[in-house]
Amino acid sequence: MSDENVFNESLTQQLQNIQQLIEILHAEKNTLQQHIPTDLVKISEQKSILLTAIDTLDKQCKALPDYQNYITDDKYAELLLVIKETLQECQKLNNINGTIIDHSSLAIERMQNKILENRSKSSITYTNKGKKQGNTLGRSFKA
Question: Whole-model pTM?
Fold first, then answer.
């Protein structure tokens, strides 16, 4: 098989991988919104495997001797544009998921602070970073 055929097939496979990544990012978003940590672990593993495959395929394409000629060739322009646009959509979805995670983390921190306040109002202390923590004195004591 010629390098040009390898490049063409690699681009097609890369587009399929990136489209799968979009599906995974949508699933991740739904899982984050529904607060299902067990599904999130599975999705993260799938996402990691797919990102590794995308990176490997990208490196294989770049290793082809005529890579620079192929990426400037007009016959690949449309496919390369679709790949670029699909990657931009992935970045957008990933940023949205990151925002959801940030908001969830803040909500969890607020809830944790409220629990600490209610549990022992007189024994709340602060960490060196200014975060609230309950009094830990006596918790490790065993009778």
Answer: 0.73
